[in-house]
Design a protein that fits this description.
Distance between the termini: 81 Å
Strand order of the largest sheet: 1-2-4-3
Bound molecules: 2-acetamido-2-deoxy-beta-D-glucopyranose
Strand content: 5-15%
Radius of gyration: 24 Å
Shape: globular
Length: about 300
Amino acid sequence: MRCSVPIAAVFAAGAFALPARVQPRADSDGHSHDTAPWDEGATKDFLIHDSCNATEVTQLRKGLADAVTLADHAKQHILRFGNSSEHYRKYFGDAPSAEAIGNFERIVSGDRANALFRCDNPDGNCNQPEWGGHWRGSNATNETVICPLSYSTRRPLEQLCALGYTVAGSETNTYFGSDLLHRLYHMPAFGEDHVEHFAEGYAGALELAETNSSYATHDSDILQYFALDVYAYDIAVPGIGCAGTVDETASSMETPTSSASTTSTSAQSPSSSVTEPPTPVTAGAANGVTSAPQDCHTHAGGDVHCV
Ligand SMILES: *[C@@H]1O[C@H](CO)[C@@H](O)[C@H](O)[C@H]1NC(C)=O
Ligand SMILES: *[C@@H]1O[C@H](CO)[C@@H](O)[C@H](O)[C@H]1NC(C)=O
Ligand SMILES: *[C@@H]1O[C@H](CO)[C@@H](O)[C@H](O)[C@H]1NC(C)=O
Ligand SMILES: *[C@@H]1O[C@H](CO)[C@@H](O)[C@H](O)[C@H]1NC(C)=O
Ligand SMILES: *[C@@H]1O[C@H](CO)[C@@H](O)[C@H](O)[C@H]1NC(C)=O
């Protein structure tokens, strides 16, 4: 026997009605472009100032793309594994994952209108030896200067785990992508004055994860360490990575631009009000590196940190 009923007959019988939303719009001209898209005016590309020459622009765009690649994979790793990931627990302890996911996602998809990268030297800081760049802080909070040194030293993400690099034993600014992640977090459009420096060094990062995990998910260095470690393990050298060990942290000097970590006492001011360039800092004797004041800024706790 025949079970099918002609569609027209069903309609005619009023067996069902089309939902209102798909009914033809009798009283409109039907041109959806008459209405501005919800995100009209969005800035989708990172802004690079005219002061950057052609090769600087090319390198900056690649470095920023690397930053996005790192952040995007970090987010994907957390979404896939949550706190069942050993990597997650190593860097973020028992913290809920939403804050880390959000801090990475803002790098991936956040509006880029309020963050400008420039290549001139408006504050004179690039004249100082070893300076790779700096956030302009109170002079222009939405701007970051990338000095010439960066273009000759920062490595591409393709070299992750090569040339002796390890996550524990090398500086986070070895790669342009992670360096720019750090610099993006200084700008309020990406860090919201909430991603700051709390932990000191790699061992300090692991300790913060264990003892004070709600700070780990908005610590600039820990976000970088996590992103580098999971990209290394999942993508660059699958199943192996190049985590390194905490022991090598103290002695290793992998980066071309050395980094001094110094502590200056006291000063309880929030880091958002104090920026590079630094108050004079003393030599980073602790890890045996240069005394040159570099890209320094003040931690939430008042310590001066140079990278
Ligand atoms: C992992 O997350 C679950 C919730 O998804 C939570 O119940 C558990 O305590 C967390 N475990 C650790 C070690 O953080
Ligand atoms: C801001 O500009 C002044 C004058 O050019 C300079 O001395 C100072 O170091 C700059 N501050 C920062 C954070 O770069
Ligand atoms: C752009 O500037 C860099 C310094 O950051 C310089 O080394 C490079 O030669 C310049 N590129 C061109 C094409 O002039
Ligand atoms: C800087 O960015 C913030 C948003 O992050 C915005 O509210 C502010 O207007 C910007 N300031 C300037 C001077 O562009
Ligand atoms: C967690 O870290 C923050 C930032 O360094 C610090 O202010 C706070 O006292 C720490 N809390 C604990 C319980 O250690």
